[in-house]
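Renewal narrative, Specific Aim 1. Our central claim is that a sequence can be written position by position from structural information alone. The example that follows is taken directly from our test logs and has not been curated for this report. It begins with the structure tokens describing the chain, in the order in which they were read.
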């Protein structure tokens, strides 16, 4: 009787695991979005430490990825507007 109970519980745990994997695959965009927001908030809180004095060089290292991202968004907006007008 013990073996059948152990098999049954392992089958149930396998089913639960595969169901969780299926749900995670269906909601992968949501999971990555929430993870990105959490990572951004943690990074922002960490970088705003009042005891740390940032040099201009360090600030330029932090500013560069943001500037690249904004430029990519600008390059994306104009074609979208033009294609929706025409």
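The sequence written for that structure reads:
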């Amino acid at each position: 009787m013990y073996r059948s109970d152990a098999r049954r519980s392992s089958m149930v745990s396998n089913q639960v695991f595969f169901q969780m994997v299926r749900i995670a695959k269906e909601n992968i965009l949501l999971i990555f979005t929430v993870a990105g927001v959490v990572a951004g908030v943690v990074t922002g809180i960490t970088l705003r430490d009042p005891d740390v004095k940032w040099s201009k060089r360090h600030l330029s290292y932090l500013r560069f990825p943001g500037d690249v991202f904004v430029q990519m968004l600008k390059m994306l907006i104009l074609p979208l507007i033009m294609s929706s007008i025409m």
